[in-house]
TrEMBL record:
Keywords: FAD, Flavoprotein, Oxidoreductase. Residues 143-236 form the Acyl-CoA oxidase/dehydrogenase middle domain. Belongs to the acyl-CoA dehydrogenase family. This is Acyl-CoA dehydrogenase family protein. CDD domains: ACAD.
Amino acid sequence: MRGSSRRAGEEVTEVTFGDPQCPADIREVRDRVAEFVRDRVLPCEPVLDGGGPDAAAALARLRREARREGLWALPLPTELGGQGMPLKAYAHVAEAEGESDHGPAALGSHALLDALMLWRHGSPEVRERYLAPLVSGELMASYAMTEPDVPGTDPFLTRTRAVPDGAGGWRVTGRKWFASGAGGADLVTVLARTDGEAPDREGLSLLLVPAAAAGFRVVRELPVLGAAGQAEIALDGVRLPPGHLIGERGRALAVAAERLQLGRTLRCLRWLGQARRAFGLMRERAATRARSGGVLGDLQLVQRHVFESLLALRTTRPLVHEAATRLGAGLDAHIEVGLAKVAAARTLEQVADAAIQVHGAAGLGPDTALPALFRTGRAARLLDGPDELHIVSVARRVLRPART
Ligand SMILES: Cc1cc2nc3c(=O)[nH]c(=O)nc-3n(C[C@H](O)[C@H](O)[C@H](O)COP(=O)(O)OP(=O)(O)OC[C@H]3O[C@@H](n4cnc5c(N)ncnc54)[C@H](O)[C@@H]3O)c2cc1C
């Protein structure tokens, strides 16, 4: 979601990671990324948030600088033009990178999910045509599962349909919404039923839809608490040439689950970075806002906000890194990712809310990034599956007798 903005006062916020587990060899690159985001990306946020040609020019400049400084596409496989940093190590960097919503796009890690998905599950035609421009940032991708007329939490009810066109390709018809970045995407991965009927557990497939295809239409932007970034799209008999199926026909959910697990973990790391940013703003305000006989931070109820926020940050971080470590090692991480997702979303919402409270009216105004951070925290409790879904899924797994 777009919207974080660096505003007055933020430049004095010291960056403290409180991340003692970060290995020494990663610390150097993490600190360089943190500096890049703080000194180059945050000052550009108002322009980047505004979209249009000015935003495109600013992003292109940031990307050139990131490449020049050897910080481009750190977690992408070397075979795809990235630097091949393993997930466990990249996790420390992702937190610094994600302090701004624009960090991943500026540093070339935004394409990780789509690039890995196409690399592992795309046809040779699709890989040949789209992988390189996706990784270089020339093409933008979006992912569309959720639909207006059925619950996103129950994908077996998906109404979008894809039928064979008789020439090896597909015709796709349906409607999706809240697809992040779909309004400006070149490629949209769409979940569609290719076989059987709702609510069959089999028969769902993923298809790669070029936004330029006839029948693809952006119906409207869907501002989330006032911020742009999500769109509703219509697919009116979109014709896809052969090779645009991702993974096996009817087996979408295996590919989607792989993508979602990594996606959720990356988001959690970025939310940690944003929660730390909100914490820094709160600490700064509490320490400097003068009142008669002292500063706001002298008040015990303000100190409580600081304590509870730090506690949330410090207890969430190990959960998120545990999820990243297990996922990176190829281990089952369902419980760890579920715990991390709920904890990181809550933490961002809680810390941003506390920081707003400590700022008074200024916390809701246009001069700090806090409204955007709070908005991201609130949305975090819904996107990539609402809290309830993860709570139920973790509890069920824990209660299974065989789980050790
Ligand atoms: C900012 C943002 C970005 C998003 N980006 C994308 C994207 O890029 N691509 C995409 O496909 N989707 C995206 N989404 C959609 C998001 O993934 C869905 O909103 C989410 O999965 C929930 O689906 P739903 O909105 O249809 O809610 P529903 O499925 O209708 O659920 C509504 C509510 O019912 C309750 N509920 C549901 N299931 C359970 C359960 N098992 N137990 C208890 N309670 C339950 C919960 O309170 C839940 O919030 C985005 C959403 C937002 C807000």
